[in-house]
Amino acid sequence: MRPIAPCLFTYTMLYGRLALGLTFLAAVTDRFGWWGPPGTRNVAWGNFDTFLAYAATLNPYLPTAWIPAVGWGVTLAEVACGLALLVGFQTRRVAVVSGLLLLAFALGMTMGLGIKAPFNFSVFSASAGAFLLATSADDPLRIDTWRARHAGKRTRQHQVSGWATGAILPDP
Q1: Would you call 96 helix, strand, or coil by DSSP?
Q2: 55 or 5: whose pLDDT is higher?
Q3: Which of 17, 96, 134, 142 is 20 to 30 Å apart from 40, CA to CA?
Q4: Is the dihedral of CA 76, 81, 84, 85 positive or negative?
Q5: pLDDT digits (tens, 9 = 90+) for 94-125
Q6: C-alpha distance from residue 22 to each of 83, 85, 124, 143, 167 (Å)
Q7: Quick one: DSSP state of residue 74?
Q8: DSSP assigned state of 65
Q9: Which value, to the nearest 10 degrees, does the dihedral of the CA atoms of residues 66, 115, 132, 18 take?
């Protein structure tokens, strides 16, 4: 099946990658109060303690002593995924990890807040979008594509210099 507009497909993948990456980073910056203190309009947490209380709500089955480790682990994972998605580094692998992270978040929201909460915040949709991104074709505006082009040039240059010195014999 061919896409109706190939450039639309290319830029849709770019849009999905940037949207997921920025969403992860926006959530992290909210935890550190960069969007304002708790209670400010459109601020979910406003500080890390409020975020940890929310993480405890989403993980009622975990011992309380584990919540800070879970909170920091999720935060580091979101920073890593967000930055990698923004620049397009290991896009397919990071998209799979992002989809699993979002799916775990959606399941945690379901257990802690009920089934409606992850639907209200489109967490299942974001997870599905991440998995779709993992199956996408190459996006020309990502670091992976740039690295592959340069690796291919280096390989060809190495072969040419090897042929010139006699280290590599050309195919008959």
Answers
A1: helix
A2: 55
A3: 17
A4: negative
A5: 999 999 999 999 999 999 999 999 999 999 99
A6: 8, 8, 17, 17, 48
A7: H
A8: G
A9: -70
CA angle 139, 18, 116 (to 5 degrees): 120
Task: Name residues whose C-beta falls within 8 Å of residue 50's C-beta, 6 or more positions apart in sequence.
Answer: 38
Around 112, how many Cα atoms within 13 Å sit in the side-chain half-sphere?
A: 17
Q: How many CB atoms lie within 10 A of CB 21?
A: 21
Tokens of 51: 């975020």
| CA 52, chain centre distance (Å) | 21
pTM exceeds cut of 0.70 = yes
Dihedral of CA atoms 152, 158, 161, 165 in degrees, nearest 10, equals -150
CA 81/CA 117 separation, integer angstroms? 23
d(CA 70, CA 110) in angstroms, rounded, equals: 17
Can you tell me which residue has the tokens 């909170």? 71
